[in-house]
Task: structure prediction
Amino acid sequence: MKETYITEDCIQAMSNLKDNSVDMIFADPPYNLQLSKKLYRPDQTNVNGVKHTWDKFNSFKEYDKFTGTWLSHAKRVLKPNGTIWIIGSYHNIFRVGTIVQNLGFWILNDIIWLKSNPMPNFKGNRFTNAHETIIWASHNKKSKYTFNYQAMKTMNEDKQMRSDWFLPICSGSERLKISGKTLHPTQKPEVLINRIILSCSSIGDTVLDPFFGTGTTGTICKKLNRNFIGIEKNQKYMKYAKNRIKIIKTIPKSELQTVINHKKEIKIPFCSLIDNGLLKIGSKLHDINKKHDAIIRADGSLKLDSLIEGSIHKVGAKIQGNTACNGWQYWYYEKNGKLLSINNLREKIRNQIKTKII
Result:
């Protein structure tokens, strides 16, 4: 795993990176909050909001120019099949989204990070701002981007992962502090970055974070065995980021493997099992309880009786009275008195093909 730290302005630093050199980008740019006055809690204690110089811009025009410049570099260094994630609030995300589209990125989703413990609206003159928006976009409309769909579904109790994520803000021991004071006002929670990186990258990929801050992206990348490039112009932030990441241990590769996304697997037609001599024409397939026996025919179709015939999927569906069926999981063949899944035979052919490719 390669760790790259660059203590420099993000635009200057990205201008020196090679074209098409990173697989994924996570960006947490300045939000341009436009805070002009101090904010107090009801007990008159000061709220430590974002009032740093790096978040101040003289006008929307200046902010748009800055955004367009760093996003142009991001577009150049991102691989054609890579994706970018940009997080923001209502102050900036709509301006960012326009520029993202104007530069030719293709927006895939806008993720709503719904905060389980948001900071209240102390003045009581607006709704409590309880979410942030994350734009997920591919390099271009035709990008063959990575999306670990099955892994995300598994994380969500075997239901499709939705675009609204109910997660806590960074707090407690996770938030870095100096003498009891918060080091960085917009430090993101590890659980959020973990989900993002797991969703669209693979072991060994390179992740770029042009606004590295306190190093949350690098922390997660090291845990998940991804290479990373962290760019941060604030020397203090970078110092603490390095110290934070230094003590992180990489999770063993065997534990980092995620559930296979079958949509990316090599397609194997059922007749390939016959062509490779793994099953014979005229032999039978059974359901797990051996209530049904279907004969394999020369074209790879099954015949159960005079009324039921077709593919392994179609016949399986008719037997169960369903509109669809995964025949690879439904049918079994018998060997030495034991029922074995035909899916095992499909995997055997897949592995042979992968070995030849490698």
